Amino acid sequence: MSLESKASPKAARPSRRTLLAGAGLFTLGFHIPFPARAATLDAAPTAPEVNAWVVVKPDETVVIRIARSEMGQGTLTGLAQLVAEELDCDWARVTTEYPSPGQNLARKRVWGDYSTGGSRGVRDSHEYVRRGGAAARTMLVAAAAKGWGVPAAECRVERGVITHGSSGRSITYGAVAAEAARIEPPKDVVLKDPKDWTIAGKPLKRLDTLPKLDGSQVYGIDLKLPGLLNAAIRDCPVTGGSVRSFDAAAVSGMPGVRRVLQVGDSAVAVVADTFWRAKTALDALPVAWDEGPNATVSSETIAATLREGLDAEQAFVGNKAGDVAGALKGAAKVVEAVYGVPFQNHATMEPMNATALWTPERCEVWTPTQNGEAALAATADAAGLPATSCEVYKIHLGGGFGRRGATHDWVRQAVLIAREMPGTPVKLIWTREEDMTHGRYHPVTQCRMRAALDGDGNLTGLHMRISGQSILASVAPQRMVEGRDPVTFQGLNPGGPEAAIGYTIPNILVDHAMRNPHILPGFWRGVNLNPNAIYLECFMDELAHAAGQDPLAFRLKLMDNHPKHRAVLQAVAERIGWASKPPEGVYRGICQTMGFGSYVAGAAEVSVSDRGELKIHRIVAATDPGHAVNPQQIDAQVAGSFVYGLSAALYGACTVKDGRIEQTNFDSYPVMRMDAMPAVEAILMPSGGFWGGVGEPTIAVAAPAVLNAIFAATGKRVRQLPLKDTDLRRA
User: Fold this and answer.
1) Which residues lie across from 358 on neighbouring strands?
2) Smallest Cα–Cα separation from 215: which of 340, 410, 28?
3) Which member of 140, 546, 699, 717 lies 3.0 to 4.6 Å from 180 by CB, making a disulfide possible if both were Cys?
């Protein structure tokens, strides 16, 4: 396959405030927040905390605290909209800050969960952040009413101005904030009906755009602190291996080098005055590894293990109804296919990095993280200190996609290095090569599907056997259910609000033969929904053709009990013009799924030249997330999802040789280029009554929509990804 494209693919410990002021870090999205009232406030008493979520300054600036992480997805703006909506403040005066996980611990987790993943930034915190805004509004109004000696019920608020109805007197939030901070918070508040929203639900500009455009936004890799040293690290290339020996004397005399040390059992690092000098010395450092038994593993041996799992007698059941074996035995026609997806890398633009400052009494870390509380736990463990003696300051992420969520290996490394240089801040940066070869990869799986069709072409039975890796077995074994990994069955569940299958099939069995190679898995944007949507939706297309039926009509017959799945599918069909003939040489594909609480569908138009060159002309996507907090952000999320999803489908594959990942940079792990990216048309159709995610669901429909269109164009079924390994010339 070729894709049409013009481009080729030590010292006294400085105080925290001195450090931060010297670094110029008091900018949007990275403020050190105010501690508990019982502690000494960092801010002047003239800018009081109304409650944990809201600070109103005398100049009427409203500071909204956001516990979730911003990594380009817009969570910071969306959550601020929800708080501001209930607060009834002036959106033009809103800014944000991250409360630290240490403060959350000290305040009995007043800000709730810090984890930002699984498309849960808004959908898992919308209610309590709205209550925070509503409570702050109630306290501000009560303060004004108390000053006037009138009932609070006689007052109204508009854009941060409180007005007494009968007298016409008015006062601003900033003027009453100090008094409001002394009022007992309300135990109950009434939230607005979404139909009355004036800030939430609107396509407002993002709060983090300008700092990114003018270069003032600080990312972890940019962080500068007085006396800062830099570290580069190299881990054993084979997971499970260790350091046998290294010759520190060979590089200790190189310019700028301060320390050469072993980090844990499996890594070595060089600390120098600049990162380049640290990296240069590390590249020259002689290291001998004990690679262990995993050094014999290859992509071929892993694939063989997965193939064995397809026929294994034992498997964990995720969805079962009826008698699949009987349906297959009595079928007029049995259709069978095996699909597979490879390991894939998160490939964040900003490699893993953290800055750590350690003393025997305290450890502080600055890092981009999707989960500040998990980063704090990793910091405390590596520092050898209680969590109450540690702190993590979150910084905007230069990409996360799951890599900076469940696992904080780079934070642990940074702290271990800093422990060797007490009182000196040390910034660890992984090279691109280190980042690419020591990730937590999207799990490798294969799936065999067998379906029964009756004499009228109706689907009467389906067996899906997934063979491959479990994420939870590696990163969160406590979440396993009697040995079964529920995440494996995303999009294939028999029901529920999270990731249910969209078809009623009388006889169905979906099971998982767990096979875990040594390559470490992790949550990768879209997680198991991505391959499961490929498996099911491409196979549904195969079944429609085997039955001699239109792929849309074949699906709709199975969707009477799934109205929301059906609605998004019909929406993309109508927009793509499914009922009409496409332009000459252009072919269409269609698909749908449910994941992360939202319903999504996709349709694609493609052409394939006689030389097998694929051009994706157009993508249509429909999303029903229940509620839409910022339609513009959702539109951008959908487009970005297709960039990520199509990159994986067309190019994304991590292969294993001699136990190690072979792809080391973007020359061997390419992503979508701008001139190859199709136009994306997003249909937003929130139906209300539930809260779904938007950061991940749409990724899952990118590949199956295109793969089904490719079959229409060429007569070839692509069952093994990525597409770059496939000859797309007509069958």
Assistant:
1) 363
2) 28
3) 140
